[in-house]
């Protein structure tokens, strides 16, 4: 599907964390200039994808064992923020195909990782909804079903998902996790009609009597609650506690890092307009010199920076939980993962409120015409707000209370 990753090419020194972030920052202007093209294509343009490959971006979570870069989550998400500051949709298409290398390297055994990462060309879209049915057969499973919203699937070589595994004794199906190579599913090319996030490549895929080998399916497994006590297969295999993490938080941080970058993009555009447009009422002057526009800019910058620092703190806490669960000093629990994900969800929602209250209502109707930069960031952020993760905020609040207060379920009271 593409050339081998840069990190796996002999003779090339692995880039430092600072170099990776710098490479992403250097691509912002091109991503910004090609936003309309990416929306029209409904995914990251192929040549920009190839630049991402050459820059090593897809290698960031791939273990060094397989020629990857094995960078920290903080570095990975810093790259995502820089790319989203150029174009949130294109960055989303990249991030949600690249980030799942972390989960495959954490949870799957060596023989599966050898296959997935061995040809230095791993990218995997993923959806947590178990809309695929799996039936046992000789040597593996047969998959059938359609999965919607597979962000990043146009450039994915694998798909990581969940299925309901039929039981041979007639018992109720159990949830399973599965990994499928690209030749086992069909892309439906049905993305692009959404209000925003048109460039994310969030197409549906279909499995039709698709066979996957037994080692690619893990029965009785839920990606948002994979047990990690005393470490994982990946942390032991690679000797890095980064691969001992749970899944829910890192899924959510992926979205939040894109939102932070998207809001910085909005602030960049707000500054450009301050320097080029005048106030609507006397004294007519550049917005740059108007005290109210200065206040709006300062308020937005402060709130975005607060969100960014809060996100960095959550990522650091996640890393500490990974280290503790490996050395045995503290288990990384479901409650830890769930509650941190709730914090990150609030970051996303507060970023939306910053866009709405501090920038959007004073930017002017001329900046909201179709194709304008503010029009696009508004559409992208409003679509993020309707994503399943932010949409479940109220239910998550209730579940958080039940977990923290150890409230038994109704049937157990």
Task: Describe the model.
The chain is an alpha+beta fold and 413 residues long. The chain is built from 15 helices and seven strands. It has a seven-stranded mixed beta sheet with strand order 5-6-2-1-3-4-7. The radius of gyration is 22 Å and the shape is globular.
Radius of gyration: 22 Å
Strand order of the largest sheet: 5-6-2-1-3-4-7
N→C terminal distance: 55 Å
Poorly predicted regions are: none
Number of separate helices: 15
| Global geometry | globular
Index terms:
413 residues, alpha+beta, 7-stranded mixed β-sheet, 49% helix, globular
Write the layout of secondary structure elements.
Blueprint: H1 17-26, H2 28-33, H3 35-41, H4 46-54, H5 73-86, H6 88-98, H7 101-107, H8 110-117, E1 124-137, E2 140-150, E3 158-165, E4 174-181, E5 186-187, E6 203-213, E7 217-219, H9 233-238, H10 248-276, H11 291-327, H12 334-363, H13 373-385, H14 388-391, H15 393-404
Parallel strand pairs: 1-3
Antiparallel strand pairs: 1-2, 2-6, 3-4, 4-7, 5-6
Helix pairs in contact: 1-5, 5-6, 5-10, 6-10, 10-11, 10-12, 10-13, 11-12, 12-13, 12-15
């Amino acid at each position: 599907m593409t050339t081998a990753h840069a990190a796996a090419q002999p003779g090339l020194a692995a880039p430092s964390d600072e170099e990776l972030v710098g490479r992403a920052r250097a691509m912002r202007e091109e991503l910004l200039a090609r936003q309309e093209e990416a929306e029209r294509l409904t995914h990251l343009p192929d040549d920009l994808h190839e630049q991402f490959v050459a820059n090593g971006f897809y290698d960031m979570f791939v273990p060094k064992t397989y020629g990857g870069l094995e960078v920290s989550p903080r570095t990975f998400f810093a790259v995502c923020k820089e790319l989203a500051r150029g174009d949130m949709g294109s960055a989303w298409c990249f991030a949600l195909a690249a980030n799942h290398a972390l989960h495959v390297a954490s949870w799957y055994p060596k023989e599966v990782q050898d296959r997935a990462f061995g040809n230095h060309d791993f990218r995997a879209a993923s959806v947590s909804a178990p809309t695929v049915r799996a039936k046992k057969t000789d040597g593996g499973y047969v998959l059938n079903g359609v999965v919607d919203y597979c962000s990043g699937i146009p450039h994915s070589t694998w798909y990581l998902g969940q299925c309901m595994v039929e039981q041979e004794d007639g018992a109720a199906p159990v949830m399973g996790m599965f990994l499928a190579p690209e030749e086992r599913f069909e892309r439906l090319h049905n993305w692009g009609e959404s209000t925003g996030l048109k460039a994310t490549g969030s197409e549906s895929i279909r499995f039709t009597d698709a066979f996957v080998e037994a080692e690619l399916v893990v029965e009785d497994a839920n990606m948002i609650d994979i047990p990690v006590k005393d470490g994982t297969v990946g942390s032991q295999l690679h000797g890095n506690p980064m691969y001992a993490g749970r899944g829910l938080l890192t899924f959510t941080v992926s979205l939040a890092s894109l939102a932070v970058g998207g809001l910085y993009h909005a602030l960049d555009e707000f500054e450009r307009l301050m320097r080029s447009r005048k106030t609507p009422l006397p004294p007519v002057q550049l917005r740059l010199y108007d005290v109210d526009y200065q206040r709006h800019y300062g308020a937005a910058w402060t709130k975005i920076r607060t969100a960014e620092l809060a996100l960095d703190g959550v990522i650091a806490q996640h890393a500490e939980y990974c280290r503790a669960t490996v050395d045995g000093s503290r288990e990384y629990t479901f409650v830890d993962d769930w509650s941190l994900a709730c914090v990150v969800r609030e970051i996303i929602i507060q970023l939306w409120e910053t866009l709405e209250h501090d920038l959007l209502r004073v930017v002017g109707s001329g900046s909201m015409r179709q194709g304008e930069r503010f029009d696009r960031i508004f559409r992208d952020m409003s679509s993020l707000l309707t994503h399943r993760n932010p949409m479940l905020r109220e239910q998550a609040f209730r579940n958080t209370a039940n977990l923290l207060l150890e409230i038994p379920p109704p049937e157990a009271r």
